[in-house]
Write a structure and sequence with these properties.
Distance between the termini: 39 Å
Number of helices: 17
Structural class: alpha/beta
Shape: globular
Number of strands: 13
Strand content: 15-25%
Helix content: 40-55%
Length: 433
Amino acid sequence: MRMYDIIMKKRNGLELSEEEIRFFIEGYTKGEIPDYQVSALMMAIFFQKMSEKETLNLTLAMAESGDKLDLSAIKGIKVDKHSTGGVGDKTSLALTPMVAACDVPVAKMSGRGLGHTGGTIDKLESFPGFSTGISNDTFIKNVNTIGIAIMGQTADLAPADKKLYALRDVTATVDNMSLIASSIMSKKLAAGADAIVLDVKTGSGAFMKTEEDSFALANEMVTIGRNAGRKMSAVISDMDQPLGRAVGNAIEVREAIDTLMGKGPDDFTELVLTLGSQMLLLGGICDSKDRAREMLLNTIKSGEALNKLAGFVEAQGGDKSYVYEPDKLILAPIKKEIYAPSEGYIKHIDCDEIGICSLMLGGGRETKESEIDLSVGLYLDKKVGDKVSKNEKIATVYAADEKRLKAAEERFIKAYHISEEKPVMQKLIRGII
């Protein structure tokens, strides 16, 4: 088998066989096939697209290119959740304890963030002593005893995807639905869950800017998962403005804890309940969304979800007292309130710009080597649809130094758009597949 023939076949619009896909994935992962040939193939795929069968075979080949997590020792149906990311997306921090408190085991691999804020692991490290560097045995033991564990993604999990994505990133071949879907799903399949709930964002702060593209990506990933024998569900949710009111790291942890105490923002609480309901349905705990929602709300009212978070934090070396006393979580010393320049309604928020403000404060990574400041962030007092008076407070910025604060503040002001007329509000949940 020759790589040249595989490239030509795809260039001519023909379907690649499973053997051909595995040949190039295995060869590229081992370093036996050069970048320039795989770049040519990626460009051919970009223009000629991939069939459903090809996409599944590509996903499985990448999932099997390295280690696969064996979760068979965990009792029950293991349900994982994945978000395509967004500004203020701290969903896993509140969602996983609520689901675990309903006796659905959550065994989750997460990564660090690269962009405007940290990833789930970075945010969890706001708890002093917390570590995701646990062994597979400890990971499985914690899920069986506590109901939840989160560990860092290993370098050997779907290594083909990591290598292929880096190549796509510099050859302008990222933006292909099959390649995006297979990249995400290869890691999810390798992580070993029986069921996967996807939170696919749509809007200005999302990877997929249009609702049409978001539904297409969700459908593609659900199809891959089901064809691979997994239970699947996808929620398409709004990211035209930040989720919740907190954007940062430790400040988002505070908001997640507030939500588990029943004091969370309406939009964030609604998303958590929607995703959690899907996880309970796939986990076989109940057979209706209404019952699932009721069960999740009961974990908040009873305090079980908060206790579950505390148990999880403690089991992974963290100080659980911070769960019950969130004011102990670190917050940057320089506090600056931002005021509305005019009267009216918040018409639009440039979601990506708010994320960049967090990055400028030091709350995200511009490169993999960048160090995150967990203490900085923003709190949005006003969001889309809210009425404001001139000079009324719309947000608070927490910074570690004046220079970063000034740059972020200037950018933040431009991200808020105020109009005389109240805008038509977009639905938070755009659909469920």
